Amino acid sequence: MVKLNHENREQYINEIIQAINNEYHELFRELFIELHPTDQEEIITSLNQEQRRFIYRNLEPTEFGEIFQGLNLEQQKQLFNELDQDYAIEMLNDMYSDDVADFLSELTEEAKELYLQSMDYEEAQEVKDLLKYQEQTAGALMTTEFISVSISDRIEDVLNKLRVEGPDAETIYYIYVVDEDSRLVGVVSLRDLLVAPLEQCVEDVMSSRVVSIDVNTDQEEAARIIKKYDFLALPVTDNGRLVGIVTVDDVMDVIEEETEEDFGEISAARGSLDTSISSVVAARRRAPWIIMLMFLGLITASVIGQFEETLEEVILLAVFIPLIMDSAGNTGTQALAVVVRGLALGTVDSSSLFRMLKREFATGIMLGIFCAITLFVIVPIIYGSFWLAFIVGVSLFLTLSISTMVGATVPLIINKLKIDPAVASGPFITTINDILGLLIYFSIATALLQYLPQ
After folding, report:
1. In-domain check, residue 3
2. Which of 65, 252, 346, 359 pairs as cysteine with 91 (C-beta 3.0–4.6 A)?
3. pLDDT at 100
4. Of 229, 247, 265, which residue is a domain's last?
5. Domain span at residue 397?
6. Mean pLDDT on 20-29
7. Tell me, what CATH number does 222's domain have?
8. Could you write out the DSSP letters of every residue in 47-66?
């Protein structure tokens, strides 16, 4: 397999494109087949439709299937529409069932049924079984291309089975052991098989302490378990029966998908992070959050309006409004990020919850003290008023302390309601803390108004 580095990459790709343009069939296959599938994906998506048609004519459906399953959904749809129907069906038959299920689940019901009816019966049945599971569960994520053996099989028989079934399995590094009812009872690694005497039984070398998950387990939990145990694959059971495995490459896709989703939630831009969508679509998806935040902004404005007389008395107070608001929003968002990350990684639970909240509150207090001390020094020098420094410093101290707790507790409450905690987005937390910060600031300023320079 050719390894492309920075120096030879462009030259190698140009040779492939020249072979395509000149229709040098043998040269194209010689150059292209040697590439890693990821490099093949990048080349295909950079070509025009006519150049891609040349590739379809010169790659077997099995070969193109390996490339196809690595593309994102939009790229898959684009290229799939360019394929001859017989070629497409043969490609789907040769792909792993979980990848086919992921793709077909995004098509219309009519198109999905059309392709399932055209596929080989056994292949189509496996895909249909996967499509029955609820989205974002281990059942929907798993693949059924795995190798299982009986507890009484000899090592020699298992190795022979690997030679026959291994090419069609998603992974062969773990071989799962089942009883006569297909119930998962153990696991044995490929390394254990290779070093064990051929005459031994699987039962003698397997581990009976198997970590597995149910088909209805959330895909994020599956990802956490694979990360925790450094697994390459995780068995999935249905009432104890082994029905599939979740592999690490699928988990990486889940992590990327969940991270993008959380980032979109926290930034109030969910569904509009993809740079390939139009500005109209992006605006439509962001509009609900922006409109809601606009109404919250009106509350912020009304808070300032309630203290109009205070501002008229000492206009200098307006200078520190941005400082109070920005500081409140920033500390709240920091606490939000800490909690959302902890919930996503599973490091925040009932045993560590109080400790985490205590730490965040203490952090807010310490940040408030640092900022207040700084203002006690700077404000009298610039504005010549110790009382002004006292009002701004104490207001900021209280605001940072409270804002940190708001940023930490809101996502926890939302999580308790079985809603994604990332919904407690940064802009939402920021606006809430802006309102609290202004109320604190103007309340203290109004109470001490007589001590301020008019």
Report:
1. no
2. 65
3. 92
4. 247
5. 279-451
6. 90
7. 3.10.580.10
8. S-HHHHHHHHHHS-HHHHHH
Q: In the prediction, which pLDDT does 6 show?
A: 52
pTM (global) more than 0.90: no
Taking residue 52's Cβ as centre, other Cβ atoms within 10 Å add up to 19
pLDDT attached to residue 345: 65
Look at residue 283 and give its three-state secondary structure. Answer: helix
Residue 4: the pLDDT is 54
pLDDT band with cut points at 50, 70 and 90 for residue 171: confident
CATH number at residue 356: 1.10.357.20
Query: End-to-end CA distance of the chain, in Å?
Result: 79
304 C-beta neighbours (distance < 10 Å), count:
15
Q: pLDDT averaged over the chain? A: 85
- Give the three-class secondary structure for 377: helix
> How would you classify residue 301: left for phi > 0, otherwise alpha for psi between -120 and 50, otherwise beta?
alpha
Q: What value does the mean pLDDT take over residues 268-272?
A: 53
State the pLDDT at residue 262: 62
**AA letter at 126:** E
Q: Which residue, of 87, 114, 137, is where some domain finishes? A: 137
Q: How many helices (H) and strands (E) does the chain have?
A: 22, 6
Under a CB-based contact definition with an 8 Å cutoff, are residues 188 and 206 in contact? yes
List pLDDT tens digits, range 296-312: 778 888 888 888 888 88
Q: Could you read off the pLDDT of 34-57 as tens digits, one per residue?
A: 888 888 888 898 889 999 999 999
The whole-number pLDDT of residue 354 equals: 83
| Average pLDDT, integer, range 250-255 | 80
Give the torsion sign (CA, 230, 233, 235, 236). positive
